[in-house]
């Protein structure tokens, strides 16, 4: 065994081998005037093996048979994929293989929307970690956390495996289905004062809810003066807030946070990977430190649940060839999440290169304490400086 190959095993935290794949896009036009839907037809090419390894400070890389790095920062390349761009996503898989093991002797059919959502979940997890580790951006923390908790579960069925995000977060299922409203007929407090008291973990005290909002939410009319309170998700949230008894501290905080946030800041209308829309302009001044502390707690728990759910089938092994411990990974998706797992919270984060025309590493891994690094490489820094210089000359004409 040569020295480089030996050092390869000593310096890598884990390895994974994938197969190249062929991917064909099938465009489905379902209704006039509506955007098309995409199905992907894929098969693997076992003769073409793609090897990955994870190294400190460089992340997940494609490596050669002798241990040399062919392509760095695979996770950063995934982050740089344009949002919901199916063609760019296909190119990524044609370069590095598919997220999961697939057939080699016949096509596998994959729903394009589900695939993009899986990629978006990886992106949201990594960017949420970076939003927490660096200078905290609570708007981004809210967006990424809410995306992971609120969006519909993703299901993907293949011949040899299946993927589901349905069990990652219990709140996701509850916000869709829990609708048990308060039974005031058995409440002495309601009989005496026309209100009920609910312990709120965010404010650390009991909060009184009076007959007008209880009746409005129970009958589907919403809360007077709160735009969007007839939204089905908010109605279920009200039911969770008032009647769902649970000892799980994180789940309780999640319910109480989203109720307080939407009651005081704005009711959520829609959640996408790149932002939240509200039923009315949000009252940002009401996003209090109390709410931010609760959000931070939920965000950390969401990251933990998301990563753990995607690593549950990884198992440790002892490699007799290298006489060293190793890990058995089952998919490229696990390798991507495992590379997130090995990032040091509060120490490392992914940052977007500030050169808008970056062709190198649009997202690069840096130390969280390095606050002044704006570009992924000197070339991008020089390009940005030249662009500023040209702009100044145009302004001075």
Care to describe what's here?
With 397 residues, the chain is an alpha+beta fold. 41% of the residues lie in helices and 24% in strands. It has helices at 3-11, 74-79, 86-96, 112-133, 138-150, 170-177, 188-193, 211-219, 232-243, 249-264, 289-309, 332-341, 378-396, and strands at 12-28, 37-55, 59-63, 69-71, 108-111, 155-157, 162-164, 195-200, 205-210, 268-272, 275-278, 315-319, 324-328, 348-352, 363-367. The strands form six sheets. Strands 1, 2, 3, 4 and 5 form a five-stranded antiparallel beta sheet that branches. Strand 2 (37-55) and strand 3 form a beta hairpin. Helix 5 crosses helix 11 (289-309). The radius of gyration is 25 Å and the shape is globular. Residues 1-10 have low confidence and may be disordered.
């Amino acid at each position: 065994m040569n020295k480089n190959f030996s050092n390869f095993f000593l310096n890598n935290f884990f390895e994974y081998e994938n197969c190249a794949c062929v991917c064909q896009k099938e465009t489905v036009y379902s209704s006039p005037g509506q955007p098309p839907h995409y199905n992907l037809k894929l098969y693997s090419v076992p003769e073409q093996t793609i090897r990955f390894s994870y190294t400190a400070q460089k992340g997940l890389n494609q490596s050669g048979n002798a241990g040399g790095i062919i392509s760095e920062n695979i996770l950063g390349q995934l982050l740089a994929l344009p949002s919901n761009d199916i063609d760019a996503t296909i190119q990524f898989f044609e370069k590095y293989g598919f997220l999961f093991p697939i057939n080699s002797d016949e096509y596998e059919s994959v729903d394009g929307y589900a695939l993009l959502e899986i990629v978006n979940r990886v992106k949201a997890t990594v960017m949420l970690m970076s939003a927490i580790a660096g200078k905290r951006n609570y708007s981004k923390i809210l967006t990424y956390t809410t995306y992971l908790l609120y969006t519909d579960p993703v299901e993907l069925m293949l011949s040899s495996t299946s993927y589901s995000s349905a069990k990652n977060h219990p709140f996701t299922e509850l916000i869709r289905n829990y609708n048990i409203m308060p039974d005031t007929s058995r409440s002495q407090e309601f009989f005496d004062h026309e209100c009920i008291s609910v312990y709120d973990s965010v404010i650390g005290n009991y909060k009184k809810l009076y007959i007008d909002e209880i009746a409005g939410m129970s009958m589907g009319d919403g809360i007077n003066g709160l735009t969007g309170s007839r939204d089905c998700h908010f109605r279920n949230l009200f039911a969770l807030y008032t009647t769902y008894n649970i000892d799980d501290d994180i789940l309780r905080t999640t319910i109480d946070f989203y109720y307080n946030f939407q009651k005081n800041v704005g009711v959520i209308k829609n959640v996408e990977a790149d932002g939240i829309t509200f039923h009315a302009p949000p009252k940002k001044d009401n996003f209090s430190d109390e709410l931010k502390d609760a959000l931070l707690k939920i965000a950390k728990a969401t990251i933990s649940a998301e990563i753990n759910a995607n690593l549950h089938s990884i198992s440790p092994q002892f490699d007799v060839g290298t006489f060293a411990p190793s890990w058995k990974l089952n998919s490229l998706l696990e390798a991507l999440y495992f590379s997130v797992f090995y990032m040091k919270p509060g120490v490392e984060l992914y940052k977007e290169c500030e050169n808008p025309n970056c062709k190198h590493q649009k997202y690069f891994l840096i130390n969280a304490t390095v606050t002044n690094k704006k570009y992924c490489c000197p070339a991008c820094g020089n390009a940005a400086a030249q662009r500023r210089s040209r702009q100044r000359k145009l302004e001075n004409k």
